[in-house]
């Protein structure tokens, strides 16, 4: 396909403390006992996109991620792991590796995406329209059980409506307007020119940007080079492209080969010209439908570039692991609603219990649960809607509901864990009660401790 | 919304009942409350102007009748008598199932006034159709009406359904079609509720903004630029009371619609009904007149076409190539009557005359070798030999003497006489009446009170003129070489400044190519504007033009308030501490930094010094010294650090450059003064200097001026420092 894929795997995201730690960067957080990055990699593999650059923030994290990838995918994918400094933003990360890009089009994927939307479809849409950028959008979070369950999930869906405002044309193929981040706080400001060109624009608040973009390489490199203040793909680069999609036309003549129209204004804006030349180089001489509407009468034909969208169908799953809430949601979804993503085959009870796991007597593991390799559970335990990692030792009379227990966790007798995340190597002594807590790696919770809605982690850092 | 609602049996059984209870009513505004058709409308109301030889109101009434309306209230204001007389003599007063009642008013200046009056009359009992007498349509009302009723049943706040139509989304087509500006609307795609309505009057603004709250309730809205407002509204009776409650509502769209959309307390909702295959359009200006006339000739408006709708006893026949010819036409064999032309009864056309794409009214006498192209010639016009008319409107009773020429866009009002071989310049408007002195073609002024005065006085003149026209005529004939050539009668209206640009937009003449290019240019400028607007902030990372503008506004207000506070303090001898308190509260309410406060206070101080009487620079300097002495404590309290001090210096520069150039020669001295008073530290000055190092020459004026002082600072301070150290 001549697509090069850049996976932005991030580093130690501050939002996910205490789940992430020095040893576990964001990309390696387990979702149904598999690093979250593996979901993206396998998704790409399914679309036969095997030429990847995984960009990780921070050297140490890059080493960890690289180590894991070379172990797991050595013969399946051609992966390069690149380390970039921390906190340079998504656009910064791309800028740092821009010289590695050679293919005609670049697919940029966020490493925390858990989805079953084929990236190949996005790439195809991109090619079909010969777009400068194609963004994948999906319908507002399929929060799955959240709707039936906790009220927290409901709040989230309500909020989700405020993530993006996206303007689409009538055919829902072109991206005409996007408002992100701080812009959402203001009233919408829509360019009249673009509305004039399309006639009708639909503004949607129920779509979220999945952070999967296809870019034209030349354009991407040029913009990254020229707009060196752009930090974020989503908040700077994409809105810029969307805003200027009709602008490039005014700087250039309608002839197929880019040719300045002798306007002095143009000459004075050298940078602009260069940029728009590249932008317009990338669009075919016969422009998209909207543009045809635009080139009426005596008006000179104009140059545009196309910003497209690929809207995933509602039945597809798409979520990003970018918050603790999302982490829990995704884990629950992957072993529940969208279990085909997990890559495991579920038992008749709709759960997965590794053959090597040991269960005590009268211990029940409900549907939508996962019990990892070599884990042991004592008697009279009950597990509902939870993921338990590998080699955990769980005592008797333990209740685990709606929680994620990572690997090598020791849980004493009589513990009750609800809606919580317990990281690797944590020790919960007897009769610990956790509700909506996060316990950082290696933490020890003293016997009888009761916590609600807290984040427990080792002090040293 | 129809699908599940359409359970046909129910709807049908429901509907006749409703209709039986309250006959469907309509309010027809026989006054456009606009001045677009002047000077013609000074003498005859717009609704009686012939559109393809039939008065406009005929079309509207015919449609209302065919759409099932049973009671029409015709609201007349300007030339009310003429409208009433016309209706009384028309077929409409004798229709069995269609009653037409006129409501006369002489002091209404807007549609709002009209509807308030209708409300007072208490004649409307149910849903009604609101339409103006210059609207042409062949749509079926049933669907729209039914939708309206269904909605009303479910939600009593759904008070109005607006009929819209899709058009091509381009300013050029919009402009060249009906001569109206583009319309920006936002509609909820599922419920078809109207959420935003903006007439594109402001060409300069490149963006339009939508209340973000709209998206909280709706997950999706559609924005349209491809919508044409048909000006046909189905209203619930509440609309009338709304007009009464909000006595400031004047314009149907600009005030009423906006008012309802903005006001979410009452929660009234407006919905849209889109028509797809029917025709609806309103004659808003001359260009619309031209376009709609052509649409009628080309039968888009069927059944509202000349041969079906012909008035009186004269039958008009449709011939090949869009030719309509009434009976009793005297046409010379050598005359060429081109395609898409309508010729009225009793008109005679002499030899070698060529008429194309035009409408000629009844009883005209057209000489030989006349060229009429794309023009509208009304009744009883005399066109002598060798005249040329291109894209002109010629009203009743006009005489064009031989050889006269009408350039594109000319409008000749009633009974004007054009002198021999006279060439009427393009876009001129000629009338027997003098141009009202208080000409207010400006849209915004349309509702000003004086408007009605003008109108009345004009009408008065007209009546007088009608009364003893013979006298007037003879009077006029005296100065035979009038401004319309030898033997011409009438005044060419001067085009006032503002509307000059508008003339080509709204005339019957096709838009000249260069103007089209201009429109395109405007769009491109728009684009450029937008891109600049978005580029500048984008380079600094985030795009927030809006907040920037606000911030600037705020800063200006803040500065003004601080100044006011300061001056009051000076005049009333308020204690410094109190002033500080007041300024602090201002600072909090405007969310300003102390640097802003310092800048504002410094600004006020300098202004005070300037305002204090002085004649020489030295006196001014003394003033400054005094002020600084008195108020240094105030200023200092806002100067916690270097950054604020730099801000003061920058502010000072700004003052010197912009508001008070008088101070600029004193820049160095005052800076020195501030330094001496310890208001500004030397670090701040140095930083200021280094900050300016890379600036443009223009920005460095004051750095240069202060060069000596800076030099001195650089050398002297070491000693200071040492002293301090000791």
Automatic annotation (TrEMBL), chain A:
MF annotations from Gene Ontology: guanyl-nucleotide exchange factor activity; translation initiation factor activity
SUPFAM superfamilies listed in its UniProt record: Nucleotide-diphospho-sugar transferases
Keyword Ribonucleoprotein: no
Record localization: Cytoplasm, Cytosol
Gene3D superfamilies with a match to the protein in the record: Hexapeptide repeat proteins, Spore Coat Polysaccharide Biosynthesis Protein SpsA, Chain A
One example of a Gene Ontology biological process annotation: cytoplasmic translational initiation
Name under which the protein is recorded: Translation initiation factor eIF2B subunit gamma
Species per Swiss-Prot/TrEMBL record: Rhodamnia argentea
The gene coding this protein: LOC115734211
Automatic annotation (TrEMBL), chain B:
GO cellular component: cytosol; eukaryotic translation initiation factor 2B complex
Region (Disordered): 434-468
Keyword Coiled coil on entry: no
Polar residues composition bias: residue spans: 449-460
Record's protein name: Translation initiation factor eIF2B subunit epsilon
Complexes and interactors: Component of the translation initiation factor 2B (eIF2B) complex which is a heterodecamer of two sets of five different subunits: alpha, beta, gamma, delta and epsilon. Subunits alpha, beta and delta comprise a regulatory subcomplex and subunits epsilon and gamma comprise a catalytic subcomplex. Within the complex, the hexameric regulatory complex resides at the center, with the two heterodimeric catalytic subcomplexes bound on opposite sides.
Keywords, comma-separated and alphabetical: Cytoplasm, Initiation factor, Protein biosynthesis
Keyword Transcription set for record: no
Organism: Rhodamnia argentea
Family, similarity comment: Belongs to the eIF-2B gamma/epsilon subunits family.
Domain W2, residue spans: 552-723
Location in the cell: Cytoplasm, Cytosol
GO molecular function: guanyl-nucleotide exchange factor activity; translation initiation factor activity; translation initiation factor binding
InterPro entries linked to this entry: ARM-type_fold, eIF-2B_epsilon_N, eIF2B_epsilon, LbH_EIF2B3/5, NTP_transferase_dom, Nucleotide-diphossugar_trans, Trimer_LpxA-like_sf, W2_domain
